[in-house]
Design goal:
The chain is an alpha+beta fold. The protein has two domains: 12-167, no CATH class; 169-209, no CATH class. It is 37% helix and 12% strand. The strands form three sheets. The chain has a two-stranded antiparallel sheet with strand order 1-2. The protein has a two-stranded antiparallel ribbon with strand order 3-4. Strands 5-6 form a two-stranded antiparallel sheet. A hairpin with a 5-residue loop joins β5 and β6 (147-152). α1 (12-19) crosses α3 and α8 (169-185) packs across α9 (191-201). Bound molecules: zinc ion (ZN). Residues 56, 58-59, 61, 95-96, 98-99 line the site of zinc ion.
């Protein structure tokens, strides 16, 4: 994870329309086709891609066509528990289907101490807009000396890594591929290693090119 400098900015006219929905029906409205909802969802996606440089907010793997991972608009405080924040931009990030999926974040309670004002809540999870992420989560080097193993530095960091499985072997392996791929872009790898990395990232496995 890294801290994002900003969240999406939604036009005031759209917010005014969304605010008129009764809190209890907002999670259902999220899946509706009203103009305001579509506009809100579109802004979250469009601006989020730029703000997050198309990386998943949690695992930092590439989203969309580049990473072949479906992009989810992910409620940091789940809308099933906190319907009042269904249409609050600071409560939304883009994430991959794995991180937002049922086995990981899903409807996980992420708010420790509730406050009427969102920014005044205390969160269990490291918050991508409100927290200094690097205070809570660092990266250690793995056996191959790549800085890819997520390490919790605080209670919040440990909670986040544990509940979002950010240190799972599969994810660590994926991150290692990405780090190698980035290194390749900077011409740091020998040619034969580079070919293997390209193969791995493109998911070609052991198929001969
Ligand atoms: Zn992810």
């Amino acid at each position: 994870m890294i801290r994002f400098a900003a969240h999406a900015v939604i036009p005031a006219s759209v917010i005014a329309k969304l605010d008129k929905y009764a809190v209890s029906i907002r999670p259902k409205r999220w899946y509706g086709r009203s103009q305001a909802v579509l506009q809100f969802r579109d802004e979250i996606l469009k601006q989020g891609k730029t703000i997050q440089k198309s990386f998943c907010a949690w695992c930092m793997l590439p989203l969309g066509e580049d990473g072949r991972r479906t992009i989810h608009r992910d409620h940091i405080a789940p809308k099933s528990i906190h319907p009042e924040w269904t249409f609050l931009a600071v409560n939304l990030v883009l994430s991959c289907e794995y991180c937002n999926g049922f086995s990981n974040k899903g409807d996980l309670p992420t708010v420790k101490t509730l406050s009427a004002k969102y920014e005044d809540c205390e969160f269990y999870v490291v918050h991508p807009y409100l927290d200094e992420v690097e205070v809570h989560i660092g990266f250690d080097k793995d056996d191959d000396d790549l800085p890819v193993v997520a390490v919790g530095k605080t209670e919040k960091g440990i909670w986040t890594i544990l509940n979002l499985s950010l240190d799972s072997p599969g994810l660590t392996r994926e991150r290692a591929k990405e780090v190698l791929y980035e290194s390749r872009d900077h011409g740091l790898l020998p040619h034969n290693v580079e070919a293997l990395v390209v193969q791995a990232v493109q998911g070609l496995g052991s198929r001969v090119l």
